[in-house]
């Protein structure tokens, strides 16, 4: 399965890609929302892990665009922000899995289960 990682911190993106490869997924990394939206070939069978704090197009804007697709991928939001800030940004998407950094393998596998 393809897992798109939209994360501007290269160390976090690389760590996530390594973990996902170990779980037999095909990770694709993108440094920002614009690059992801321009380059990614997204299907409903894919997963997208998106950081809320992206430069340019925000992570929440990326999430809204993906949810508007006819066959949206499964989504996980990651962030280092406080729970209160996360609730403010995602108040209209209450069922979305949100993981706070730092991430662990267990957190990722549980969110993708």
Task: Categorize the overall geometry.
Answer: globular
Secondary-structure element order, N to C = EHEHEHEHEH
Strand order of the largest sheet: 2-1-3-4-5
Relevant CATH superfamily: Response regulator
For the record, what CATH class applies? Alpha Beta
CATH topology: Rossmann fold
How many β strands by DSSP?
5
Q: How does CATH name the architecture?
A: 3-Layer(aba) Sandwich
The percentage of residues in β strands lies in: 15-25%
What structural category arises from helix and sheet content? alpha/beta
Low-confidence stretches: none
The Cα radius of gyration reads 13 Å
Number of helices: 5
The first-to-last residue Cα distance is: 13 Å
Percent of residues in helical segments? 25-40%
Question: How does the major sheet shape up?
Answer: 5 strands, parallel
Number of domains: 1
Mean of the pLDDT scores?
Answer: 92
Structural write-up:
With 113 residues, the chain is of the alpha/beta class. The protein has one domain: 3-Layer(aba) Sandwich (Rossmann fold). 38% of the residues lie in helices and 21% in strands. It has five helices and five strands, in the order E-H-E-H-E-H-E-H-E-H. Strands 2-1-3-4-5 form a five-stranded parallel beta sheet, sandwiched between helices. The radius of gyration is 13 Å and the shape is globular. The model has no long low-confidence stretch (mean pLDDT 92).
